[in-house]
Amino acid sequence: MIVLPDEREPVAQLLGFLEYGERLAQDCAAAQAALVADPGHRRFLLGQARQESMHATVFRGVIAWLAPRRLSATPLLPPLERYRALVEDAITRRDLHETLMAEQLILEGLGEAILNRIEAGLVKRGAPFGRLRRILLHQEEAHHGFGRRLLDRARAEGALQPDRLRGRAEEYLGLTQDMVLTLASLFSTIDEDASAWASDVRLYVPEWCVG
C-alpha cells in the first residue's frame, strides 16, 4: 500500500479514533447481550462483541505499522466521549431500543460509511489484505442489519415510541457529525471531504427515526 510519509501520522490518528469506536461498539454489544431474552439474539450480540474486538485489534496493528508512537496516544474527541456517555446511560436504564439505535444503526452506520470510503481509496492505492477488508465491511453490514431488523419489528409490534427515539436520534447524529468535522483537518490531509463522511451516516438510519 502506498502511504506517503506526510500521511502516516494523520492516517494513524484517524485509525486511532476508529479503534476507540470499535471498543465502544464491543462494550455496547456485550452489554446488550444481557438485555435481550432471545437466545439467538444473545449469541449474535456476543459474536458481534468478539468481532468488534477483532476490528479494533486490526486497526491497532495498522497503527503500529504506520506510526508506532501513536499506540500510546489516547484519542481526545469530546463528541465521541459524549456519545459513549449517552450509550452507557441507555444501558444503565436498560433501554435496549435506544442502544440498538445508537450502536447498531448510527455508530455502525458511521463505521460502514467510513469503511466504504476508505475502501475506495485503498483500492485506488492497490492496498493489500483485500479479503480481510471485505470481511470487516461485511460484518459491519451484518451488525447494522441486525439492529435495523429488531427495531423495525419492535415498531411494527408497537413496542417502541418512535417520537422519543427520533429525538434521541438527532442528538446522537449531531454528535457523529461533530466527531467527523472535528477531524476535518486530518481528512483534508488525505484528500477526503469530511462533510461528505458526516452526511453519509444519515443514509443508514430509517426515515421513521429521523423524518
List keywords for this structure.
211 residues, mainly alpha, Ferritin, 77% helix, globular
What's a quick, concise take on this entry?
The protein has 211 residues and is mainly α. The chain has helices spanning 8-33, 39-66, 78-92, 96-124, 130-156, 162-182, 184-189, 194-200, 207-210.
3D structure, described in words:
It comes from Nitrospira tepida. This is Ferritin-like domain-containing protein. InterPro entries: Ferritin-like_SF (IPR009078), Haem_Oase-like_multi-hlx (IPR016084). With 211 residues, the protein is mainly α. The protein has a single domain, classed as Ferritin, core subunit, four-helix bundle (Ferritin, Up-down Bundle). It contains nine helices and no strands. Helix 1 packs antiparallel against helix 2 and helix 4 runs antiparallel to helix 5. The longest helix is centred in the middle third of the chain and has 29 residues. The model has no long low-confidence stretch (mean pLDDT 82).
Reconstruct the topology from this structure:
Elements: H1 8-33, H2 39-66, H3 78-92, H4 96-124, H5 130-156, H6 162-182, H7 184-189, H8 194-200, H9 207-210
Helix pairs in contact: 1-2, 1-3, 1-4, 3-6, 4-5, 4-6, 6-8
